[in-house]
Structures are given as structure tokens and as C-alpha cells.
Amino acid sequence: MNTATGTSKAAKLTELRWDPDSIPPFPAIALRALNLMAGTDTSLLELCNLIRADLAFSTAVLRMANSPLVAFSKDVSSVLQASMLLGFRRLRSLVITVGLRTYLKDSFTPLMKSCWRHSVACAIIAERSASWTGLDKDFAYTAGVLHDIGRLALATTMQEAYARVIERGADRPQDVLQIERELCGIDHCEAGHSLVVAWELPEAFIDIAARHHHPQAHPPDATSLIGSSCALADALGFAVIPCRFARSYAEIVGSFPERERKRFPADARDLAFEIANQINLIELA
Predict the structure, then answer these.
(1) Which residues is 170 bridged to in the sheet?
(2) Is 229 exposed, middle or buried (0-12, 13-18, 19+ CB in 10 A)?
(3) What are the start-end ranges of the H helices in 3-108?
(4) What are the residue ranges spanned by the domains of the chain?
(5) Cβ within 8 Å of residue 82, ≥6 positions away
(6) How far apart are CA 153 and CA 151, in angstroms?
(7) Which of 16, 121, 143, 264 is least buried, going by the fewest C-beta atoms within 10 A?
(8) Can you name the residues that pair with 243 across neighbouring β-strands?
(9) What is the pLDDT along the chain (285 residues), one digit of tens a residue?
């Protein structure tokens, strides 16, 4: 049998299996938090009440609020206190992080752990560089956490096919999308777009999920920021699929505006160590 024909048939078969409505639902609290876009007193109270109604989320939020990640000068003993100290945007970012961790808890395979660590690394970098595009840093963090939701879905629903994607590897990040289309019938950017629509997430996340591997936009916007943060996370050792000819840390940081460049240490190992420590704290909370 012709290999190309076999690959094409396999892609068509797996494409039939891609159905965003069949993907396990993201935690309802996290979805509702995402749809609370305004940072008003009313939305803060609503978000606080959502968290308090769920024991698991309440516990996780309190643990993180009392962790070195937040470093309040006093112990936080209630979700209401945490919400007042953190503020709406930071609380929402924390809820989304807890939501993604909860989403993965029953399938925390090495691949899923790699996806998780890449997403959080991207979020931490995006938060640090948000002023580059004039974005709210907490929105940038949330966008970083969610940018690869399509990859998580593919790795969950097409485990064998996605294992072959990992095994094949790629020369450059853009090649990964083509390999995913060949072996899964859809790439993770397309899958992410369909999930954002299916889950009725705010439109602001559509381009982020769908275009973070596309050439950077000019002028810079949220999608280009996440694209650069994603590439930087890969260069620091948080890649899901290491590429043979990926850009170096110095090259990626050098493409940032000068003011943003200064936010990053000269030695990639220093930033990688810092991010790994933050991820570990989140995992332990």
C-alpha cells in the first residue's frame, strides 16, 4: 500500500473522531470565571461565591493564596479574604490555573505533565512581558494557560495518534501542525479554535488558541505575545515536542522590545530554574 495513501486514509478516519462536544468538559467554575470578563465589585463577589460553593476549588485557592507564589504577609483563612486581597483579575487567573490542573488530574501521564508545564511556563512568561503589548498581565497569564487547550484535547482523545506525533518529532515548531494533521486529521490550533467555540469562551481566546504558531502580528497583540511566550517556554526546556531547529533563548528574547528584554536574565538557565520553581509550587498547592 502506498504510504502517502495510507496516511491520508488514517487522517480521514481520525478526523471523524474529532468532536469537540465529546471532549471532557472543562470545570464549570473555571468556565464561568472565564466568562466573567469585567473586574467589577459585582463580578468579584460572583467569582468568590462560585469558588466557595466548591470544596475542592476553595481548598486549592486557599492553598495557593497561602503559598510563596502570592506571599501575603498574613495567613489567608477564607475565600472571601483571598478574593479581597488578590483582586478580581488575579483571582480569576488563579481559578483558571486550578481549573486546568483539575482537568488533568485523572490523566496526568508524562505527556499531559509536559503539556501542563509548557502551558504554565508560557503563562508565567506572558505575564512578565504583558506590558509589551499593553495587555493586562492577568489576562496574559490566563491566555498563556489556555493557549494549548487544543493539544491537551488531542492528546486525550487520540492518545495513540498523538503518541506517534511525539515520536516523530519535528524540525521546526510550524512542522508540528502539519504532522498533527497527517496523523490526527486536525492540528492543535484548529482543535483549540473549535473548543473555544464549543465551550462558549470569550472571543478574545479564539485567535490565541488558533493562531499562536502563526507569524507574529504587527502591531503586537495578545496572539503575538502568546506566540513569543510559547516559543520562549520551548527554548527554556518546557517544550512538549522539542524541535531540532527551534530558535534559541537569546534569539527569541532579542526579538522583544528593549524595555521588555531587560525583564529576562541573560542566562536562560536562571529563568528556567525560576519558572520550574513556580510550577512546582503550583503543583504542590
Answers:
(1) 243
(2) buried
(3) 3-17, 28-35, 41-52, 55-65, 79-86, 88-104
(4) 25-106, 108-285
(5) 61, 62, 65, 76, 91
(6) 5
(7) 16
(8) 170
(9) 444 444 455 545 444 478 877 788 888 899 988 888 777 778 888 899 999 999 888 998 898 888 888 878 788 999 999 888 888 888 999 999 999 988 887 777 889 999 999 999 999 999 998 877 788 899 999 999 999 999 999 998 888 999 999 999 999 888 999 999 999 999 999 999 999 999 888 888 999 999 998 866 555 788 989 999 999 999 999 999 989 998 999 999 998 888 888 889 999 999 999 999 999 988 887
Calpha distance 97→58 (Å, rounded): 13
Q: Are 142 and 267 in contact (CB under 8 A)?
A: no
For 171-197, letters b (16+ CB in 10 Å) and e give eebebbbebbbbbbbbbbbbbbbbbbe
Say how many C-beta atoms besides its own lie within 10 A of residue 53's C-beta.
11
Neighbour count for residue 13 (Cβ, 10 Å): 11
> Grid coordinates standing for 170?
519535528
CB atoms within 10 A of CB 157: 19
Q: If one looks up domain 108-285 in CATH, what number appears?
A: 1.10.3210.10
Q: What gap in Å lies between CA 195 and CA 198, rounded to an integer?
A: 5
For the question of whether the overall pTM of this predicted structure is more than 0.85, the answer is: yes
Residues recorded for the chain? 285
Query: 95 with 61: CB under 8 angstroms?
Result: yes
Cβ(64)–Cβ(285) below 8 Å: yes
